[in-house]
């Protein structure tokens, strides 16, 4: 029950961060709502389609559409205050990452998928919504810009899957995986820890600058 409550809070938080991104690009209200829903539900929808898990998450639970839409519209009303809550939303985004990752693992495990697919399903659920948001906003996805994001999702998924496989209580495993995943993401935010970048400059480009 507690996990479900945190999941709904994470949905709302993801929708609100997406609404702010839409506002920075002067989208209309419909665009704000669509971007909020896509960001919050896109990862779970992509996972369900790839795994053949039906009905889709928001078809099975239409209330999720109402939550994400309401959160996006609420953001329009209180947008001027949001800038003061930037750190709060970054931390809520971290909560969303680990909660969505574990949710994806749960679905894949219920379907009897092997370890690799469970972990990938968790990562898809946790990360793809943000990728879709950035693509729709014509940005380089945060996931590919050096942020320690997918790595945190993968670690969280591994902790959850192997903890369950080891026979530990599901509640304990969920709490530990969430705590470690959130802690890693929070540390990455606080100390600006990033993945190594690949920088390639062709020789002809360098010579043309001379």
Automatic annotation (TrEMBL):
Gene Ontology CC: one annotated term: plasma membrane
Main location: membrane
Keyword NADP: no
Annotated keywords: Cell membrane, Membrane, Transmembrane, Transmembrane helix
Topology with respect to the bilayer: Multi-pass membrane protein
Family the entry assigns: Belongs to the UPF0126 family.
Protein name in the entry: Trimeric intracellular cation channel family protein
Species of origin: Pelagibacterium lacus
